[in-house]
Write a structure and sequence with these properties.
two-stranded antiparallel ribbon, eight-stranded mixed β-sheet, 303 residues, 17% strand, 10 strands
Length: 303
């Protein structure tokens, strides 16, 4: 299925309470077409869905949204929130995106996780996103989900977690991050994704900086290389990257260095760089990167 076949649908569809546009996200105009965090936070919220728990801790929850008005089983897009793995940022800012993507014909499973401040970090944050993904097996007993078609998408630091999730099959018993029989994912979509933890740590306040050390506090000396996507290549699954050329938190040069290295190692990688977009557009339906993201979802799950 290609985007032209869907153009008429999305020209008239109301996504997250606003019509899809090519000029910017719902929620009002933004200067120079570049979103800030405050713009993302004021996107109209879709109708709530009940949170579903994959663990016993408060942050071990997710939200499942099914395509409206059509029968399943549905392919599944797991959405992992970002913002430097911090506890103060929940996954609610991804609700408009999750709701909009569900209209494409995919189920969205938007997951939260414990951060270093609330019991996560090493290994808790990683085990949480792993268990949240594996929990789809439980959800499929109640909801019409196609577990043969699961793709993980992550925004910013959630992109790092999403890319790491694709490599879990390599882990050996005894590894702190090991969980037996991980659910297979058929690809990863990075939304302004962090691909190199060394580069992010070195970027200081311009990137996630000290948050990288907080995430890995108490971990073995080699932990960074065990979870940094740039050190795990090849991942062995197709990858799609939706990125803004004006992203100052994950610069274009950082993502392109990863893409080139991944391709040299044999991974199939598609990258879309949008000139008039920054760090937050990939997480906003209707933004300058929206068409690129739609095509990535279609290519990874609907063809």
């Amino acid at each position: 299925m290609k985007l032209p076949a869907l153009a008429a649908v999305f020209a008239s569809a109301a996504l997250a309470g606003c019509a899809v546009t090519d000029s910017g996200p719902p929620g009002g105009p933004v200067d120079a077409g570049v979103l800030e965090w405050r713009d993302l936070r004021r996107l109209p919220q879709p109708a709530p869905v009940p949170p579903l728990s994959y663990g016993t801790e408060p942050h071990q929850t997710g939200e499942l949204r099914l395509p409206p008005g059509v029968p399943g089983p549905f392919p599944v897009l797991v959405l992992v929130r970002g913002l430097c793995w911090e506890a103060a940022v929940g996954h609610d800012y991804l609700r408009p995106l999750a709701d909009a993507l569900a209209t494409l014909g995919v189920a969205t499973w938007t997951v939260d996780y414990r951060s270093p401040e609330n019991g996560g970090g090493w290994p808790g944050t990683f085990l949480d996103v792993a268990r949240a993904t594996d929990h789809l097996r439980v959800l499929a007993q109640t909801y019409p989900l196609d577990l043969g078609r699961v793709v993980v998408a992550g925004h910013a630091s959630g992109g790092q977690l999403a890319l790491w999730l694709a490599t879990r099959r390599r882990l050996k018993q005894g590894d702190a991050l090991f969980i037996r029989d991980p659910l297979a994912v058929r690809g990863v979509i990075g939304l302004a994704a962090i691909t190199d933890l060394d580069a992010q740590r070195d970027a200081g306040d311009a990137g996630c900086g000290d948050a990288v050390d907080a995430l890995l506090a108490g971990a073995p000396d080699d932990a960074l290389k065990r979870v940094s996507p740039a050190s795990l290549l090849p991942l062995g699954v197709p990858q799609w990257f939706v990125h803004g050329a004006l992203d100052t938190r994950v610069p274009e040069a950082e993502i392109m260095a990863y893409v080139e290295r991944a391709r040299r190692r044999g991974d199939a990688v598609t990258v879309g760089i949008t000139s008039a977009a920054g760090h937050y557009e990939p997480a906003a339906p209707g933004s300058a990167t929206w068409m690129t993201l739609q095509q990535a979802v279609i290519d990874s799950l609907l063809e």
